Amino acid sequence: MKVTAIIQARMTSTRLPGKVLKKVLNKSLLEYQLERVACSKLIDEIIVATTLNESDDAIVELCKKLGVSIYRGSEVDVLSRYYEASKQYNTDIVVRLTSDCPLIEPKVIDQVIQMYLKQKFDYVSNTQLKTFPRGMDTEVFSSELLESAYYNGIKDYEREHVTPYFYLNKNQYSIGQLIDEEDNSNYRLTVDTAEDLELITIILEKLYPENKEFNLDEIIKTLKENPKLVAINGHIEQKELGE
Description:
This protein is an alpha/beta fold. It has one domain: Spore Coat Polysaccharide Biosynthesis Protein SpsA, Chain A (Alpha-Beta Complex). The chain has 10 helices and 9 strands. The chain has helices at 29-37, 57-66, 78-88, 106-119, 143-152, 156-161, 164-167, 194-207, 216-225, 227-233; strands at 3-8, 23-24, 27-28, 45-51, 69-73, 93-98, 123-125, 139-142, 175-177. It has a 7-stranded mixed sheet with strand order 5-4-1-6-8-7-9, with helices on both faces. Strands 2-3 form a two-stranded antiparallel ribbon. Helix 2 (57-66) links the parallel strand 4 (45-51) and strand 5. Helix 3 packs antiparallel against helix 5 (143-152). It starts with a strand and ends in a 10-residue tail after the last helix. The mean pLDDT is 96.
């Protein structure tokens, strides 16, 4: 069973346009994420799913340079983008990631995948009952389930957010949630605003030069020791379905 990570990415972010290619230490945020996802022990292939917009040509060029597979599809109907990418690359198990998570932890990704493989849920994530920081978001499901959502998900938010058709239909599907031993959900390690980018920049500049594979424990330790860092983006509210 081939495990494929599909990372959705585009340049036309509403809050922080071009964020995926913003650079820290002369490397784009998307490169950091791809580097970290590649450290997963369970992912066999990585695909970046972007749009047909001319503005996303830069994402395509970067992926070609890095040797990362690319799929281009609808900007608005992200569910169709995932489904078509899955079909083109003959996926078995899909790991959904978003490109606003440059510090995502490979071990966390693998924990979600392992839970999916061992416990035979239809859908597993660490995003519903939050204990991990925002920015560690990982969802795992089969290509067959993705196809079901593609044909049956009709609401706008189901098309835009890809997975609501699974987790909002709990009577149809078995849902698994990875919960961490310690609740660190108050930390925000995603990049959606200028404040988010400021924090991520500080963390990367502090930790990356010493150890390119620094882990989530080191990030949390840094934040606990420097409460002022948490305040940089602590007031930012996450966009919800339909926003």
